[in-house]
Design goal:
346 residues, alpha+beta, Substrate Binding Domain Of DNAk, Chain A, domain 1, seven-stranded antiparallel β-sheet, five-stranded mixed β-sheet, 19 strands, 34% strand
């Protein structure tokens, strides 16, 4: 990675659903607080359904639903989210207020082909200055969306021209179009997986939080804070249905493979944590700030031993892969979750 775009200076986007830089996590948290505050005072116009959003023909859309859309072109990616109107001022204020040591965002007003108003904020860094990130706040006659863009090659600067062209070509239609939906890669993998392969693969973006695994309804509850002893053990069993584990090193995202009824891993991978886990129909995973709907996989109910190991530790691709591309790269770092039915009660 080129020092001009090091993570200490300009946060690179994590590989995973919603490639969100750590800075963007903070901005989204601020926007969430703004929504909570404003809703107490007066009615809010809802955020638009993103299935109303039409991309130009030929756009490489890798995910598209009512709450998020992603485009991965050969040299750059674009992540799109809907906004409520009161979120816009707070988001713009946060980017406009950016100060050293991070480079500032320079704002310009653009106009889309259908009359949309686009606030484009460009972050440049280095000598000579090169574009490293672009943020967009886009109004379609009062319906707002945000989009942020980054380079798929972290050693190369962004060329704003093709990204601006796509953003200007976006249209927000009056009605939602369910036929536009493109499922996330983890859903597509489970739909199409071959016999003998892991039953699920996920990519989780990594804010500064542990990974929770277990009952989908219980994951988002308050589980308290881990102790130093928990970190030393690599994880903790919170309830019979919920386990928390801590990644090695400091990844910005992780790939997780879930394996069922496989033999013990033996010498494959570095052990991270092990504990019994009770499963009722399915397990989900979240990093606490990662998903409104945590990714999950159906598993027969019962008592299991869960063994977590990291394989190819520290081996990462220097570029920005889609989730589907990352699923195919067994030469890169991944976490294996091996579930074995227990022969007796824990």
């Amino acid at each position: 990675m080129d020092p001009k775009t090091s993570r200490d200076e300009v946060e690179a986007a994590p590989r995973g659903r919603g490639p969100l830089p750590l800075l963007t996590f903070a901005i989204l948290a601020l926007l969430g607080l703004a929504v909570f505050s404003s809703k107490k005072g007066r009615p809010m116009k809802p955020a638009p359904d993103l299935l109303r959003l039409a991309f130009p023909p030929g756009a490489a859309v890798t995910e598209h639903d009512a709450t998020q859309a992603q485009v991965f072109e050969p040299d750059w990616w674009l992540d799109v989210r809907p906004l409520e109107p009161d979120q816009v001022d707070n988001g713009l204020r946060a980017y406009r207020a950016m100060r050293a040591p991070l480079p500032p965002f320079l704002e310009e007003i653009l106009h889309g082909a259908d009359g949309s108003t686009i606030h484009r904020l460009v972050q440049r860094h280095g000598d000579p200055a090169e574009v490293v990130r672009i943020e967009y706040f886009i109004s379609f006659d009062g319906d707002w969306i945000s989009a942020h863009a980054g380079s798929r090659d972290l050693d190369r600067p962004l060329d704003p021209a093709p990204i601006d062209a796509m953003v200007r070509a976006l249209r927000l239609e009056p009605q939602s179009r369910p036929d536009r939906e493109v499922p996330p890669a983890w859903r597509a993998y489970q739909r199409d997986r071959r016999p003998g392969s892991p039953i699920a693969k996920f990519v989780l973006s990594m804010p500064p939080a542990p990974v929770l695994i277990g009952d989908p309804q219980a994951l988002l509850l308050d589980h308290g804070l881990p102790t130093d002893e928990d970190f030393d053990r690599g994880g903790r069993k919170i309830t019979p249905e919920v386990i928390e584990f801590y990644t090695k090193d400091d990844p910005i995202s992780i790939r997780v493979d879930v394996l069922l009824d496989d033999p013990p891993p033996g010498a494959v991978g570095e052990p991270v944590f092990a504990a019994p886990l009770r499963i009722v129909d399915a397990i989900a995973m979240t990093c606490g700030f990662d998903e409104a709907e945590p990714p999950q996989v159906a598993i027969p109910s019962g008592e299991y031993d869960l063994n977590i190991a990291v394989v190819n530790r520290g081996v990462e691709d220097e570029g920005m892969l889609t989730d589907a591309e990352r699923f195919a790269r067994d030469d890169l770092e991944r976490y294996e979750f091996r579930l074995t039915p227990r022969t007796s009660e824990p």
